[in-house]
Automatic annotation (TrEMBL):
Keyword terms of this UniProt record: DNA-binding, Transcription, Transcription regulation
PROSITE patterns according to UniProt: HTH_HXLR
Gene Ontology molecular function: DNA binding
The keyword Chaperone is annotated on this UniProt entry: no
One Pfam family cited in the UniProt record for this chain: HxlR
InterPro entries linked: HTH_HxlR, WH-like_DNA-bd_sf, WH_DNA-bd_sf
Protein known as: Transcriptional regulator
Keyword Transcription: yes
Domain HTH hxlR-type as annotated: residue spans: 20-125
Organism for this UniProt entry: Hypericibacter adhaerens
Length: 126
C-alpha cells in the first residue's frame, strides 16, 4: 500500500516530530484529549480573532450549554493553556476569557478541518 505523501509527492510536515506511526498516534491522542468535549470547539470559535468575552457573553453566545458545563470546559481549557482567565477585582466581580497565543494558533488548523469537511465527496456544500 502506498503512503499518501508518496501518492501526492510531498513530505509530511510532521516527519521530524513523529518519526513513527506509533508516535504520531500518541500525538493525535494528546490533541484529541485537549480538544475533547462537546463545547470546547464552539467556545474556541467564539474567542478566535482576539476576542475577549465575559462569562455571561459566552453563555448567551452558546444557548445549549449549561453554566456548569461552560465552567468545566473553560477550566479545562485554561488548565491546558488554550484559554486565559482575566479577573477584574471590582464589585460586582468581572471575569473575562480570551485565547492564549497558543490557543489562537489553533485557528488555521481548525479552518483547514472545516475546509476538508466541506469538500467531502457526495456532501452538499453550503
Amino acid at each position: 500500500m502506498t503512503r499518501t505523501d508518496e501518492k501526492v509527492r510531498y513530505a509530511p510536515k510532521s516527519e521530524g516530530l513523529y518519526p513513527t506511526p506509533g508516535a504520531a498516534a500518541v500525538g493525535v491522542e494528546n490533541v484529541l484529549r485537549i480538544l475533547e468535549g462537546r463545547w470546547k470547539l464552539v467556545i474556541l470559535f467564539h474567542l478566535f480573532g482576539g476576542k475577549i468575552l465575559r462569562f455571561s457573553e459566552l453563555e448567551r453566545a452558546i444557548p445549549g450549554i449549561s453554566q456548569k458545563m461552560l465552567i468545566q470546559q473553560l477550566r479545562q481549557m485554561e488548565k491546558d493553556g488554550i484559554v486565559r482567565r482575566i479577573v477584574h477585582h471590582q464589585v460586582p466581580p468581572k471575569v473575562e476569557y480570551a485565547l492564549t497565543e497558543w490557543g489562537q494558533a489553533l485557528c488555521p488548523a481548525l479552518d483547514a478541518l472545516l475546509t476538508w469537511a466541506s469538500e467531502r465527496p457526495g456532501a452538499a456544500n453550503g
